Amino acid sequence: MAPSTRQQSYSFYRQLARLWKLAQKELRETLRDRRTLLTLLVMPLITYPLVGSVLQKFMVSGLTAIERPVYRVVATDLELSQQVAAILREADDLEESHASATADDVADASSPRDQSLPGSPILNSIEGLATKSATDPTTSGTQEFGENIRAKLRPDIRVVLPQDQNSTLDVKLLVEEGYADVGIRRGSEGRWELVYAPQFTASQNAHETLLSRFKIVNQKFVDDLLAAQHPPARLPAATTDLVLKLSQGGPLVSIGALIPLMLILMTITGAVYPAIDLTAGERERGTLETLMAAPLPRLEILTAKYIAVVAVAMLTGAVNLFAMFVTLSSTGLSSTLLGEDGITIGLILRLAAMLALFASFFSAALLAITSHARSFKEAQAYLIPLMIVSLAPGVASLLPQFQLSPTMACIPVLNLVLATRDVFSATIDWSLLALTIGTTAIATGACLALAARSFGGDALLGVSQTSWREFFQRPQESPLLHKSLIPPVAGWVALLVVTPLFIVIGGIAGSLSHLTLEVRLLLNGLVTIALFAGVPGLMMFWNRWPPVRTLALQRPRFLALLLSSLAGLSLWIVLLQVESGMMSDARKAELVKLFGSLQIQIGAIPLPIKLLALAIIPAFCEEIFFRGLLFSAWRRSLGAWPTIILTGLVFGLFHILIRDAVVLERFLPTALLGILLGAVREKTNSLWPGILLHVLNNGTVLIFGQYAEALIAWGFDTRELKTLPIAWWLSALVISATSVGLLLSIGRPVRSAENAAPLPQGLTV
Amino acid sequence: MLEASLLTKDFGEGASRVRAVHDLSLTVPAGEVYGLLGANGAGKTTTLRMIMGLLPPTSGEVTVDGFRVTREPEEVKRRIGLVSASTGIYQWLTPREMLEYFGNIYSLSAEQISQRILELSQLLDFAKFLDRACGNLSTGQKQRINLARALLHDPPMMLLDEPTRGLDILGTQVIFEYIGLLKSQGKAVVLSTHRLDEAERFADRFGLIDQGSLRFEGTLSQLQEQTGCTHLVDMFVKHLGKSLLAPASDSPAAV
């Protein structure tokens, strides 16, 4: 029968049809699971309206709590009090009529006739207190809401009348004692003298309010006088305001900046459960083996799963957005958040398009991770780092300094976030959007390929490895005695512990400017030891991992040490050149300004202290952390080069966070250095050559910095980050390339046990 | 039908390298039930996985129906049906949906699939619960679905990996009937087990595997001649006893 004979080449159409049938099964499986429905569909439908109404209640009650300010004004006698009160009433009337006039004006602003307003009443130029707002005649609920707030906040001025009609009050005393906010008495030349105390906020505000109301009346008086002239005269600089009403509206909160974060959260929450269920769950149910035994490329199985995960993620996103929109429009918050147009077809289409992009990338990324997992729990543990990593770019959209550029468009996730922001603020560059989509498609494909590679791989069938829980139990004896290795999750845990501490302590360090630089340098050294050596140390102690094995502290070949010294002495010039090449002149000047004073201060510190704090301690500790612990944790599961590159990139990321500044230019040179150090660790199978290289690299920079003056005379200005003389740079390049090349080719001293594969425990044979 | 020659599988490398299967060769013609016998951890499952193309052999080759597993693993997989004690099912699907899914995986047409489901549901007696969710089925019912799943694409060769493990008497009886059915259909069957009674009952020929190597091979009478024992149990105790007591001494830990 048919299946027993060799299959004819499958037509593309039939392949697609089969893929769809396979995806249907995955979808059925996920959507019938009541847990999926509950967490993904019902929850948003309940939570958004709930949160929305609570928010609205909070906002409304919060606003009613704001009392309309009342200022007390007192005049010396009854007559003056009555005059002041009359003026204030006139001011109120003028303001009211002006407000409606402005509204008409704005409503007509779109017609070109009114674009130039030479003859419009000068009255319009009297800008009232808080009436600049556009009051659409057809106000929506929210606008009414806004108008109410403004009406509420318009200060009320009450003229306090003396009880005894004939007495004269000492207004100065009354203000001083706090019985009134402003006192009015007759001054010279028929002017009123306003008595107020600026140190009291109420008195200060009352004075300002009073002045502005008087100004309205005075202006009206002047205008009337001028109008009564023949021919009517006008003020030399009479103005009117044309308040522009753009189609975009002016939302209170820039929704474009928030949408990426929302989309990330929605797609991840939507995709997490099916991604785990359809990969790690397949293994837990015992159906993985039958799938692997089927004559179907893994990529096709994975693609079917991918389609299902994307569908669920989009569905979740759609339900979330639907619930959110319904909540927004029913609570009247939509125009507050989305601008005056509120929810439009265009907005929905753009949201759907961006949702599709986010869902397609994150579904693949999640599958790539969950395919590695052996159980549901393990998959969940693996996803924590991804969540943290994904939320960071989401926050980036809130920062205006991150702009979608050709470089940014090539960084997955970050490019989507920035493109989304631009799409919603209608400033998208279409070619960059295309580049973003292209990069995302490539990243998605790479993730799927990675997932297919690990999904159901032979390592997964019947091989149990370290689970999350085991990780938190202190073993009775060193696990490495039995040839099992440091679990990959140890690397992630170390990063999760160290990264926030590094950032927080960096922030605290920035506030310690009252200490001398010398003390701060030493403190910095202590923090480095505590974080980068202390954390690995604690982990090794807790898990009874032998330090020599864990950190690769085996003795290297003498030749390796020699070559790494050479590399350390020459490499920094190359790296400096790379860093300098990445910067524009303006940026260099900015950095010199930023760090210039610091450099002068550093110059005054004795060289031994500098070497200790900035070369020896960091080199030792960073090597222990990045090339020691992280490297050993990831080396077996990721393979040599992915580990070298990953640790290098993480090393680079840590170096762009300097104190309170983020210096992106340092990423490339430090990541390169990190990758190189990783390669040295891999090839020499020892941490020592890397430590030596690192110490010499940092130390040489410091020593050259110390003698910068002398170097400038040689045409070599390190401080100004200028391009180096070609001869220096070329010879440094040759020396470092040769020494690094030799270093990576001399090979390992002894074949270490660490390199040997562990016994696949629990494998059924 | 099946020819495995000099199969070797190493796990790990360097000092900690473990040889799970060593130069194992076996031949199973169509219509024969071959009993692959061995203690836990002897290398049975690893051998079956290499035959199925789930594990690449370190050296050696497997051909099924003329297709080499290292060259055309998909053609080999298409010709093999796998029944394993640890196989699970999709609890949110109905048996029909699950079988349709596997039918699609094995590139059967819609008519073929419905035809096979009809045949197998009568043969294995599960027509009554074809459209109930798998999650609500009993262990025995789930087992029938799995047996049907392995036969859905009508493979000429069947691999049964400890099929009765964890089953009660009735479940075991179903398996016995199933093996009888396979035999009557002329399929080549490899039955991996440590249950000597079921092997003795069904297998035409036997292979006794110990520490990854085939120690004895032949029909029951040939084995009796080679070992001087009447029953398989005695052969085990006499010749493989050492590794029975310490099966995991220098082979991977057993499940």
Q: Could you write a compact summary of the structure shown?
A:
The complex is a heterodimer of chains A (765) and B (255). Chain A is mainly α and 765 residues long. Chain A has 26 helices and 6 strands.
Care to describe what's here?
The complex is a heterodimer of chains A (765) and B (255). With 765 residues, chain A is mainly alpha-helical. Chain A folds into three domains: 21-58 and 254-454, no CATH class; 67-110 and 119-227, no CATH class; 482-750, no CATH class. Helices cover 65% and strands 3% of the residues of chain A. Chain A is built from 26 helices and six strands. Chain A has helices spanning 12-32, 34-64, 78-107, 141-153, 171-177, 201-227, 255-284, 288-292, 298-331, 334-338, 345-370, 376-396, 414-424, 430-454, 468-471, 488-510, 517-543, 547-551, 558-581, 585-603, 607-638, 640-655, 667-684, 688-706, 708-713, 726-745, and strands spanning 70-75, 156-160, 182-186, 192-196, 657-658, 661-662. Chain A has a four-stranded mixed beta sheet with strand order 2-1-3-4, with helices on both faces. In chain A, strands 5-6 form a two-stranded antiparallel sheet. In chain A, a hairpin with a 5-residue loop joins strand 3 (182-186) and strand 4. Chain A is extended and about 105 Å long. Residues 243-255 of chain B have low confidence and may be disordered. Chain B has two domains: 1-79 and 155-235, P-loop containing nucleotide triphosphate hydrolases (Rossmann fold, 3-Layer(aba) Sandwich), CATH 3.40.50; 87-154, no CATH class. The longest helix of chain B has 16 residues, at 169-184. In chain B, strand 1 and strand 2 (18-28) form a beta hairpin. A six-stranded mixed beta sheet of chain B has the order 6-7-8-3-9-10, with helices on both faces. In chain B, strands 2-1-4-5 form a four-stranded antiparallel beta sheet. The two termini of chain B are 30 Å apart. Chain B is an alpha/beta fold and 255 residues long. In chain B, helix 3 packs across helix 4. Helices cover 38% and strands 25% of the residues of chain B. Chain B is globular and about 50 Å long. The chains are: A mainly alpha (765), B alpha/beta (255). At the A-B interface, helix 1 and helix 8 of A face strand 2, helix 1, helix 2, strand 6 and helix 3 of B.
